[in-house]
UniProtKB/TrEMBL annotation:
<dbReference type="Pfam" id="PF05193">
    <property type="entry name" value="Peptidase_M16_C"/>
</dbReference>
<dbReference type="InterPro" id="IPR011765">
    <property type="entry name" value="Pept_M16_N"/>
</dbReference>
<comment type="function">
    <text>Substrate recognition and binding subunit of the essential mitochondrial processing protease (MPP), which cleaves the mitochondrial sequence off newly imported precursors proteins.</text>
</comment>
<dbReference type="InterPro" id="IPR050361">
    <property type="entry name" value="MPP/UQCRC_Complex"/>
</dbReference>
<dbReference type="GO" id="GO:0046872">
    <property type="term" value="F:metal ion binding"/>
</dbReference>
<dbReference type="InterPro" id="IPR007863">
    <property type="entry name" value="Peptidase_M16_C"/>
</dbReference>
<dbReference type="InterPro" id="IPR011249">
    <property type="entry name" value="Metalloenz_LuxS/M16"/>
</dbReference>
<protein>
    <submittedName>
        <fullName>Mitochondrial processing peptidase</fullName>
    </submittedName>
</protein>
<dbReference type="Pfam" id="PF00675">
    <property type="entry name" value="Peptidase_M16"/>
</dbReference>
<feature type="domain" description="Peptidase M16 N-terminal">
    <location>
        <begin position="49"/>
        <end position="195"/>
    </location>
</feature>
<dbReference type="GO" id="GO:0006627">
    <property type="term" value="P:protein processing involved in protein targeting to mitochondrion"/>
</dbReference>
<feature type="domain" description="Peptidase M16 C-terminal">
    <location>
        <begin position="200"/>
        <end position="431"/>
    </location>
</feature>
<feature type="compositionally biased region" description="Low complexity">
    <location>
        <begin position="264"/>
        <end position="276"/>
    </location>
</feature>
<dbReference type="GO" id="GO:0005739">
    <property type="term" value="C:mitochondrion"/>
</dbReference>
<comment type="similarity">
    <text>Belongs to the peptidase M16 family.</text>
</comment>
<feature type="region of interest" description="Disordered">
    <location>
        <begin position="262"/>
        <end position="284"/>
    </location>
</feature>
């Protein structure tokens, strides 16, 4: 599944000369079943190396760390955000001036981004400069100096960034939605460093966070437009020296139902000592690697109302627990999101813009008080959020909750004015074209490759994704809609244990707003009473 493109960070950089190490012969290369250009190798220390060889003048590379805000403890809250901001600064091999100068000479693009379940570092440059670009990525990932002066500078910049994000409803409400949906755990951890943490963040906190999560078995090195053997040779040179971790990483694939307890090795049994029953394992401390790496996302749902009378529009987000990235219905869910579609009240129009999606034809084109309405779907290793966002003039607030409930209900079963075959066919084609066009970008292509290998252990080619999308039927759409919006009626027994409780976040003028959860309940969309 295509992962969202990374947030760009200003910086352009170049390479350090590294001593060449002999190529390891203990690697395993696994070509994709349907695309021989997709290859995957695992270095002896656990670093995964993935390539997609597509020709072109430019190549792209990325390093993907299985880290992010979901793995933070109370002490390290905000560390992923600050690690992101401190990328491409001074390292043990380069000063800040050297780093900046080398990058500017390359003439490419370098970015870094942190999310809830990943920290990524990417570069795009001319083919001949690829070794230098990968050297820079390796240096900033593995050898950051993290000086006090740099931390203080980024502390001030992050305070400004957080303040700017809070001014923009379209940026802050998705963050608040996650914090409300997963209260006090994993995916509910703040993506942006909390202001109180910014002031108290120390160098030791950042170093401890990196030491815990920047391990070879949690790294993926990926490239697009580079021959696989060449990539493996360079990856082994720059990443092959990292020592494997003493404790292997617990995996959230498939979803883990409970956080793992640390099991110490059992003592060997002497022939002269009778065996005694083993005591139950001690629970791992909640700030330990073993606990945090395997802690499952616990969906809570809830409501958050934020009165801001100075806003022109009132912004409402309604979300439900959805599917993990490896769920068999994930392509049906993506098709449903595309079918609902939506966007802003103003569009330049033209083909392929989703102007015939349900939320355009049935909401935006029908109610002039609606400024924006769109479906969203956030996917993670063991959970997700699916729902609608809408921005309306305050005069329309009394009608908005019922409108949201009606639109969600209409995709759960056949009904008058419900989903038809033509509508589904259009959504499938729209989804395929969106994926194909996005993958024309080398930076998106390499991120998709790295994140798929990181999350799924392999890469689904465009051809495979298109075939899976083409198989989606109306029955699949209705089934996946009920799995997310009305799990008590899901045909899958494990879904029926979910609460089905919605997450509602509202920001803006609240006068006249009807109870959103009550409107959803009238349609059977508020979970088990």
């Amino acid at each position: 599944m295509l992962f969202a493109a990374a947030r760009r960070v200003p910086a352009l950089r170049r390479a350090v000369h590294s001593l060449r190490r002999p190529q390891s012969t203990a690697t395993t290369i696994t070509p994709s079943e349907l695309d021989p250009e997709l290859k995957l190798t695992t270095l002896p220390n656990g670093v995964r190396v993935a390539s997609d060889f597509t020709s072109g003048h430019f190549v792209a590379a990325g390093v993907y760390v299985d880290a992010g805000s979901r793995y933070e403890s109370e002490r390290t809250s905000g560390a992923a955000h600050m690690t992101d901001r401190l990328a491409f600064k001074s390292t043990t091999n380069r000063s800040l001036e050297q780093m900046t100068g080398e990058i500017e000479q390359l003439g490419g693009q370098f970015i870094t981004s942190s999310s809830r379940d990943s920290i990524l570092y990417q570069a795009s440059t001319y083919s001949h400069a690829f070794p230098s670009a990968l050297s820079i990525l390796a240096d900033t990932v593995l050898n950051p100096r993290i000086e006090a002066e740099e931390l203080d500078g980024q502390r001030d910049a992050a305070l400004w960034e957080v303040g700017e994000v809070r001014k923009k409803p379209e940026m802050i409400i998705p963050e608040l939605l996650h914090e409300t949906a997963y209260q006090g755990n994993t995916l509910g951890n703040p993506l942006l460093c909390p202001e109180e943490q910014l002031r108290s963040m120390t160098l030791d906190t950042l170093r401890d966070y990196r030491k815990m999560w920047f391990r070879p078995d949690r790294l993926v090195v990926a490239a697009a437009g580079v021959a696989h053997d060449h990539l493996v040779e360079l990856a082994d040179r720059y990443f092959g020296h990292i020592k494997p971790a003493s404790i292997p990483s617990p995996s959230l694939r498939p979803a883990t139902s409970t956080a793992l307890a640390y099991n110490a090795p059992a003592p060997s049994k002497s022939s002269s000592t009778p065996a005694t029953p083993s005591s139950p394992p001690s629970p791992a401390p909640k700030d330990s690697f073993v606990y945090l790496a395997a802690a499952p996302a616990r969906y809570t749902g809830g409501t958050l109302l934020l009165e801001k009378p100075d806003l022109e529009f009132t912004h409402i987000y309604v979300g439900y627990e959805s599917l993990a990235i490896n769920d068999g219905d994930i392509y049906a869910a993506a098709t449903l999101q595309t079918l609902l579609g939506g966007g802003g009240s103003f569009s330049a129009g033209g083909p392929g813009k989703g102007m015939y999606s349900r939320l355009y034809t049935q909401v935006l084109n029908q109610y002039h008080a609606v400024d924006f309405c769109s479906a969203f779907h956030h996917c993670y290793l063991d959970s997700g959020l699916f729902g609608l966002s809408i921005s309306v003039h305050p005069s329309f607030l009394s009608r908005t909750p019922a409108l949201i409930a009606q639109q969600l209900d209409s995709v759960t079963r056949p009904m008058s004015n419900g989903i038809g075959e033509g509508e589904l066919r259009r959504a499938r084609n729209q989804l395929k074209s969106s994926l194909a066009m996005a993958l024309e970008s080398k930076m998106v292509q390499v991120e998709d490759l790295g994140r798929q290998v990181q999350a799924q252990g392999r890469k689904f080619s465009m051809r495979e994704m298109a075939e899976l999308i083409d198989r989606v039927t109306l029955t699949d759409v209705f089934r996946v809609a009920n799995r997310m919006l009305r799990p008590s009626s899901s045909p899958i027994l494990s879904d029926r244990t979910k609460s089905g409780r919605p997450t509602v976040v509202v920001q803006g003028q609240l006068e006249g707003l009807q109870d959103v959860t009550e409107a959803l309940a009238r349609r059977g969309l508020a979970g088990i009473p």
